[in-house]
Design a protein that fits this description.
Oligomer: single chain
Order of helices and strands: HHEEHEEHHEHEEH
CATH topology: CBS-domain
Largest sheet: 3 strands, antiparallel
Number of domains: 1
Structural class: alpha+beta
Strand content: 15-25%
CATH superfamily: CBS-domain
Helix content: 25-40%
Number of strands: 7
Length: 153
């Protein structure tokens, strides 16, 4: 059974937390990627920005102000505002740090490829950052990488 290190991309594209959203989009387009890890100057993985982070889908349904009532001049929300606040932050984000999903699911280089495949499948991701013991990016592994390793292609 191959390890993640044997099948991963050892030089994945990355962006920094201060990169503009335009820089992130250009990186995704240039490298034809659905997502890119956000790393600091030591290559520690801070988050990941995916195509889905860049799109607010079905604006009327997904990005509505939470239901509220006005009682004696005060607003009382009838549902949690957390989801709305998160979507609003991403909608008006200017940098990768503001747009990224923090603390992404990662895998270690010494893990079996099968474990990476299970994570990719269970979490419905297409790619996972591969990190060392200190959380520094050492590669990326994709669904295709895992499938090829498991089928011997």
């Amino acid at each position: 059974m191959p390890t993640v290190a044997e099948i991963m991309d050892r030089e994945p594209a990355t962006v920094s937390p201060d990169d503009s959203i335009q820089d992130v989009i250009e990186t995704l387009q240039t490298h034809d990627l659905p997502g890119v890890p956000v790393v600091d100057e030591t290559r520690k993985v801070l988050g990941i920005v995916t195509e889905s982070d860049l799109v607010i889908s079905n604006e009327e349904e997904d990005f509505h102000l939470p239901h509220y009532v006005n009682i004696m001049g005060g607003i009382v929300f009838l549902e949690s505002t957390k989801h709305w606040e998160e979507r609003a932050k991403k909608a008006f984000a200017a940098t990768a740090d503001q747009m990224m999903t923090k603390d992404p699911i990662t895998v270690g280089p010494d893990e079996p490829a099968e474990h990476a495949g299970r994570l990719i499948s269970e979490k419905k991701h297409n790619r996972l950052p591969v990190v060392d013991d200190e959380g520094r990016l050492v590669g990326m592994v994709t669904r295709v990488d895992v499938l090829a390793a498991l089928t011997g292609a």
